[in-house]
TrEMBL record:
Residue window of the full protein shown: 38 to 280 of 393
Entry keywords, A to Z: Carbohydrate metabolism, Hydrolase
Record organism: Penicillium vulpinum
Protein name (Swiss-Prot/TrEMBL): Glucosamine-6-phosphate isomerase
Example GO molecular function: glucosamine-6-phosphate deaminase activity
GO CC term, one of those recorded: cytosol
Keyword Hydrolase: yes
Coiled-coil stretches noted in the UniProt entry, renumbered to this chain: none
């Protein structure tokens, strides 16, 4: 628990940097990082970019897998997760373009796209550290309430709560928010060797309480991490109000 979103972000950015450095990645054995979008990670990316510019960390031997992407948004749509990642992170660091993996929301065969994403993760020997946020309804990635806890990358229909929450990025118009997304599954996240979740703000407090203090269940998919061997949830004070 840290005081505010800034301290949470500094903590997580420093943590990721220390993990990458300890791993000492090479082109043959890169550090495989799972990455999220959303407002919560924005400041984390900003700090990582600052640290990179200060010469403290290189992402040359880092491979990324994004958690999710909207179905039906072209890559260059301003609200695609592809655009988000380049705007906030990839364009400002030295990660080689071939090391970046983001689901293609315009793929003609969505199931094949999801299967090939899982296969690419497997080819790299799995994900070392998965960074994620949490939705106000307790979802991780786009694993909405009711998702199977053994799910893998697939297409999900978004819950109305999520459409409402994410409409702020679409001029407040829920009709403009895509209805479907592709997302890594709970099992994909569980298979990573370490999971770090960022939760800030009072609107996340209920999800944090349900996910950490209630039993494991598929309605609050954050709760699956209770079974993970190496989870870390970093909250600000506001996000702990219901604990
Ligand atoms: C979206 C993303 C999630 C993210 C969540 C919370 O639904 N698919 O990966 O964790 O939003 O986002 P925010 O950090 O903006 O609250």
């Amino acid at each position: 628990i840290r005081e505010d979103p800034r301290q949470v972000s500094v903590y997580i950015a420093d943590y990721i940097i220390s993990r990458i450095k300890a791993f000492n990645p090479t082109p043959e054995q890169p550090f495989v990082l799972g990455v999220p979008t959303g407002s919560s990670p924005e400041l984390i990316y900003k700090i990582l970019v600052q640290r990179h510019r200060a010469g403290e960390i290189s992402f040359k031997n880092v491979v990324t897998f994004n958690m999710d992407e909207y179905v039906g948004l072209p890559r260059d749509h301003p609200e695609s997760y592809h655009s988000f990642m380049y705007k906030h992170f990839f364009s400002h660091v030295d990660i080689p373009p071939q090391n970046i993996n983001i689901l293609n929301g315009m793929a003609t065969d969505l199931s094949a796209e999801c299967a090939s994403f899982e296969a690419r993760i497997a080819r790299y020997g799995g994900i070392e550290l998965f960074l994620g946020g949490v939705g106000p309804d307790g979802h991780i990635a786009f694993n909405e309430p009711g998702s199977s806890l053994t799910s893998r990358t697939r297409v999900k229909t978004l819950a109305y709560d999520t459409i409402l929450a994410n409409s702020r990025f679409f001029g407040g118009d829920t009709d403009k928010v895509p209805r479907m997304a592709m997302t890594v599954g709970i099992q994909t996240i569980m298979d990573s060797r370490e999971v770090v979740i960022v939760a800030t703000g009072a609107h996340k407090a209920f999800a944090v309480q349900k996910g950490l203090e209630d039993g494991i269940n598929h309605m609050w998919t954050l709760s699956a991490l209770q079974l993970h061997q190496h989870p870390l949830v970093v909250c600000d004070r506001d996000a702990t109000l219901e604990l």
